[in-house]
Amino acid sequence: MKLDFVLNNKRVSINVKGGLRLIDLLREQLDLVGTKEGCGKGECGACTVLLDGKPVCSCLILASQVRNREVTTIEGLSIEGEMHPAQEAFTETGAVQCGFCSPGLLLSTVALLNENPEPSREQIRRALSGNLCRCTGYEKIFEAVELASRRINGLSVQNDKV
Amino acid sequence: MSVVGKRVQRPESITRVKGGGLFADDSKYHGMLHAAVIRSPVARGIIQCINTESIIKKKGIEGVFTCKDIPGKNVIPVVIDDQPLLAERYVNYVGEPIAVVVAKDRETARTVAKNAKLKIKELPAILDILEARNHPDIHIFGDDNIFKHLKIRRGNPSSAFKKCDIILENIYRTPYQEHAYIEPHSVTAIPYPDGTIEVRGCMQCPFYVREAVTKSLNLPESKVRVIQSATGGAFGGKEDVPSLIACQAALPAMKLGKPVKLTYDRTEDMIAMSKRHPSWTYYKSGVTRDGILRAVEVEYIIDGGAYSTLSAVVLFRGTVHAVGPYRCPNVKVDSYAVATNKVPCGAFRGFGSPQVLFAAESQMDELANRLDMDPVEIRRRNLLRVGDETITGQKLKNSVGLEKSLDKVIQVSGWTPGGCKQDGVGYGFSTIFYGVGLGAGGKHMARTGARVIVHADGSVSFSVGTTELGQGMITVLSQIVADEIGVPLECVDMIPTDTSRVPDSGPTVASRATTMSGNALKDACTKIRNTLRSEASEMLGCSLDEIDFDNGLVSNKGDSIPLIEVIKSCSFKRLSLSAEGWHTSPPTTFDDKTGTGDVYVTYAWATNLAKVKVDRETGEINILKIWSAHDVGKAINPTLAEGQIEGGVLQGLGYAVMEDMKSDSRGAIINPEFSTYIIPTAQDQPEIVPLIVEEPYPDGPFGAKGFGEQPLMGIAPAVANAVFDAVRVRIRELPVTPEKVWQGLRNK
Amino acid sequence: MTKYKTINPTTLDEALETLNGCNVMPIAGGTDLLVKFYEVYGKSLPKLVVLDGLIPLHEIKTENDRISLGPLVTFSEIENSPELRKAAPQLVQAASVAGSVQIRNRATIGGNIANGSPSGDLIPPLYVLNAELELSSVNGRRSIPIDKFFKGPGITVLEKNELITSISFDKTFENGFFLRLATRKALAISKVSVAANYSMQNGTITNVRIALGAVAPTVIRAPRTEEYLSGKELNDNVLSTAAKLIKEEAKPISDIRSIADYRREMVGVLLKRGLNGIPQSE
Ligand SMILES: Cc1cc2nc3c(=O)[nH]c(=O)nc-3n(C[C@H](O)[C@H](O)[C@H](O)COP(=O)(O)OP(=O)(O)OC[C@H]3O[C@@H](n4cnc5c(N)ncnc54)[C@H](O)[C@@H]3O)c2cc1C
Ligand code: FES
Ligand code: FES
Description:
The complex is a heterotrimer.
Chain A: E1 2-7, E2 10-15, H1 22-29, E3 48-51, E4 54-57, E5 70-72, H2 85-93, H3 102-115, H4 121-128, H5 139-152
Parallel strand pairs in A: 1-5
Antiparallel strand pairs in A: 1-2, 3-4, 3-5
Helix pairs in contact in A: 2-5
Chain B: H1 13-17, E1 33-39, E2 45-50, H2 52-56, E3 61-65, E4 90-91, E5 97-103, H3 106-115, E6 118-122, H4 129-132, E7 146-154, H5 157-162, E8 166-174, E9 186-191, E10 197-201, H6 206-217, E11 224-228, H7 241-256, E12 260-263, H8 266-272, E13 279-287, E14 293-305, H9 311-320, E15 330-339, H10 353-371, H11 375-382, H12 402-413, E16 425-435, E17 447-454, E18 460-464, H13 473-485, E19 492-494, H14 513-540, E20 548-550, E21 553-556, E22 559-562, H15 563-572, E23 578-584, E24 603-614, E25 621-631, H16 638-657, E26 687-693, H17 710-713, H18 715-727, H19 738-746
Chain C: E1 6-7, H1 12-19, E2 24-27, E3 47-50, E4 60-63, E5 66-69, H2 75-79, H3 82-87, H4 89-97, H5 101-104, H6 109-115, H7 123-128, E6 132-137, E7 140-145, E8 150-152, E9 155-156, E10 163-170, E11 175-182, E12 190-201, E13 204-213, E14 220-221, H8 223-229, H9 236-249, H10 260-275
Parallel strand pairs in C: 1-3, 2-3
Antiparallel strand pairs in C: 4-5, 5-10, 6-7, 6-10, 8-9, 11-12, 12-13, 13-14
Helix pairs in contact in C: 8-9, 9-10
Bound molecules: flavin-adenine dinucleotide and FE2/S2 (inorganic) cluster (FES) (2 copies).
């Protein structure tokens, strides 16, 4: 079956088997291994990608369901090697411990900041509650989202802990 | 400029935020096959038939392997060699591996493994620890089902209890805790034409894996090379079990001569991988009216599951920590690790101590309550200080920051005795301690190696035998190397941990990576620095001891030259700037008969304070805030230390209020997935205030001592104590769920 | 991996035609269906009819005082619909506490209903809104009130070849709430939930409809409590009696998420809180 969709801003036209999950298309067929599988059941969010800008679990979508739609993966966040402010903020605040959850959390973060550039703590919590992280206790992740938000909005950024 | 003590960024995080394919399941190899494991559906039984012929005929299947195919010993070496790699005649728990199937693709391998027909005669199983201990007929281990019995005898508890004014006796229970690392287990074994097997996977202890692979495949250590992939969380859950998984991949890889990858799915991972031991504790403690702890008697039983794995060592730590961080002259502890027909339990952050500390610290709080004394005062009257002896008779010579941690929490939280009395709001304390390193329970492993190479261009690479698990070891060790050699941090790179690069360095457990590898690296760096120093003294024309290394410069009074010039000059003269370092920890002792000894090289200390609000109608517990102060000796990177505290506290909170893994009456786990085994989400996280106290440990690198496990350990009792403070309901069985609190409120 | 075969129809007729074949099954958001992905290894799998391409089934339509939702409307779309926020507050509240962002972006109302779980969060609100379901197949259409749709956990009156094609109800400008207790604050399945719809005039409550989730084999109404409350002035006494009554109407069980006694008691607590205007605790 032929599948056309937009992946990280590029048109893709590829032959896939009908029942393939999006995550398998990405990891196995397209070698985009930044998208992680932690549970395969929608519970951990490690497989989060953006579908038309909205976070979804790529383990619960069939490849054929993204036909003619736009998919963004972690590999699509940096533009020409230049990291997204959220990626920079994650490394700066110490939001990455083992890093297995980071790609998914970053996509949820980017979707949140696109929709709401100045989210409150409560809004951040809610937006990230579909991404489990077992290492960090989330605190440094929240700090990263806030730092990225300030950067995006051109506010002065002081990482007072540096 | 020195970087030790600074909040430098983690060098490896850049690749990780870009989604770089560093994890075990991210790599493919030419001709790679996929394995899956056929497992026992019953808790105890006799294998009558595995029809391998019918399996092998299935489309896409490349091979199926049972215990008969193992060329070496069919054993996973841990402490006692009782666990087979693949079951022989008996199976002893639901999920026990029986055979490995290999196929061209993962789906086929998994499908065939799940649907494989086995003939197993089911036998009666024992699932309960109290029943299992000394069971007359069913023998899972030895003739009493006891993997290990440890004891501590100190003073004379029975006569001391007679002099106590208040004595409390209670039973405490704790359930399994699942590590719930987000990356499920994955490993690939790659055979080479010269007979070498390379194993790449997520793991804590590459040297354990090497031992298991060499033994089961009957290969010399020089022919097995184990390399750690980026590891997506471990917490103890990737300590001993990767040995099993690696062998499940290495056996077919060797037989078929092709790379074999084995990745578990989440449910399989939760069913078959190790967990925190469930426990049962009888706790009796007595105080005199002045609040002084006079005597403690503990019987502590942990559920080891079907095989001994690390249970004896886990039990050791629990036993030594049984009284909490207090002076107590009269102590009797009897502890048992018991065999049952369930999944083998293993290492988990805290290693046998969170269970017994839940009992000890709940009990301390109840004693305070009965004495009408505040929970801080009773702790102050008993806590360990320099010069005191622990219950094993170990005299504490230095680095005891317990009271400082208590003071810090009180100062930052503003807590006062009997302070705020808002309805349903409560505060709960716990003060705890943690024996750093393997201690006398694993002293044969208390050594580690490291190698440092300064390249001609001034860049530095180093190798160690311990592993990065997300805790920040690479960063901390890079900071140490940068400072020791005198180069900027950007010039330092760690080579992924690889058993062919350094001598056996023991495991990455027990919060030992910083101290052990840090010291070994310092040793290696000192050797290199000596070469640099003598070269510099020639270049500067001064004596050796007049030379300073700082900020990329080598100087003597006013004179200075860039360090890189010295390095170049050494290289030009063909002087070696590569060195191996080695570190062994000071001796530790434990006398099995009396339970006395200097059991750990040093201890870390902590105080936690939980503030909760309990809903009187629903029993729901809203955790408002946690203050958690830790004496870490020296925080080599405060951001990382805080990260350890925040992560550990939340894991501890999960253990305290929601995480609960259950098995059914036939020994099968009923909630092996994230929808039913629930861990805290971003919305469940309360405000966490990480606090760092520094009482330097003289033998640690820059005074540091390991503490990565400690943040989890005291959270459950702090929360249970806070719930009691809030609504006067005492929960002695974890987790503290709304249902239990509600029942408690109703029964009042 | 080649788990399922899929068919991607672009019109409803085409979809219904395909569904009329054997061993086929519709897939909407996939958040219930694909969770079973790993459990169905080696089984003979149905072909999946991907509904995504049926554009009209994604719409929220208002005609006069009647709102109809296409079955493919997602939880996120419900959560963010200003129209529904006014017209069906309990439905919006339920949609916004369920799952996570990722799940709400995919999970559909049609899937929630067709899945037939007693803890499906949109179902109690639909009960108290007296929703009508339109079911279509190659043989035609039929309409059925929501409370006649479920027969047991996971069991419904839906025929193999039928699709839910619309969910409709009258706009309510009355009061309503949805409250639930779950095992954690996000990403959790309800232990117990209560939805209600009612009018208040001068402190008197009328037109009361109450539905309970996760305390019986299907979502249920609480007729005796409704009857008791009807025409009463809300005060502490009335609320306590109502809470007692409703406990007797619940028929909960103990399972991995909670215990029966607790669930029964909490039905009363949630009812009281809802009527007192206490919001969902987060
Ligand atoms: C992590 C996670 C958290 C969740 N949390 C919640 C929660 O808090 N509350 C809650 O209620 N649910 C929850 N769910 C369950 C699920 O998201 C919902 O039930 C959802 O509404 C299902 O819709 P779907 O479109 O994804 O259904 P699908 O999975 O596509 O389909 C489910 C079933 O319905 C059938 N079906 C779908 N559409 C139609 C139609 N139009 N006509 C006929 N049959 C149809 C399918 O054939 C299938 O049998 C959760 C799920 C996950 C994975
Ligand atoms: S892998 Fe998709 S949510 Fe866990
Ligand atoms: S950093 Fe390890 S799971 Fe989040």
